[in-house]
């Protein structure tokens, strides 16, 4: 019986760094962000729903969805974000379940589901345990501004569109504090892998 572990965090908390560490250790990581990109590709059901609701102004020249243009709309309008999520989330869940089942059929013992909005979207039923990658809010803000070349106002808008990381601590089974070095982060990850007896 495979173990299904949820990996979550917040924007610019370092969750992708931890996911990369897991992949290097031989674990399967099913990535919700990757799934979200796949399910809105041209020809997919969610793609047509998005274009119908948001109009062709959010398309690139090649008719693919311009994620920046769409992001600018949804990060500043909660109703539009909820509408987008109503198309994308069911498609993402179906995609992730398909990937998870393929990994189980392949004989894998542990599958990590990398889901940024695990708690916001109430997807805890998809996993047995959860690991939260945590950083202090000032660190999160600084990293996001630097990584995405955002103004402080834009970065704060993106952070405040998610549940505060401090609230997520109360919901997680395990917390990796990512305020320090990568060595410290990996040490914490290894201790959970050991404690929970996880094998790829």
Automatic annotation (TrEMBL):
Molecular function terms from GO: dephospho-CoA kinase activity
Highest taxon above the source species: Bacteria
Catalytic function, reaction form: 3'-dephospho-CoA + ATP = ADP + CoA + H(+)
EC category name: transferase
Residues that bind ATP: 12-17
Keyword terms of this UniProt record: ATP-binding, Coenzyme A biosynthesis, Cytoplasm, Kinase, Nucleotide-binding, Transferase
InterPro entries noted in UniProt: Depp_CoAkinase, P-loop_NTPase
Pfam family, one: CoaE
Annotated pathway: Cofactor biosynthesis; coenzyme A biosynthesis; CoA from (R)-pantothenate: step 5/5
EC number(s) recorded for this UniProt protein: 2.7.1.24
Subcellular location: Cytoplasm
CDD domains the UniProt entry points to: DPCK
Role according to the record: Catalyzes the phosphorylation of the 3'-hydroxyl group of dephosphocoenzyme A to form coenzyme A.
Family: Belongs to the CoaE family.
Protein name: Dephospho-CoA kinase
Organism of this sequence: Heyndrickxia acidicola
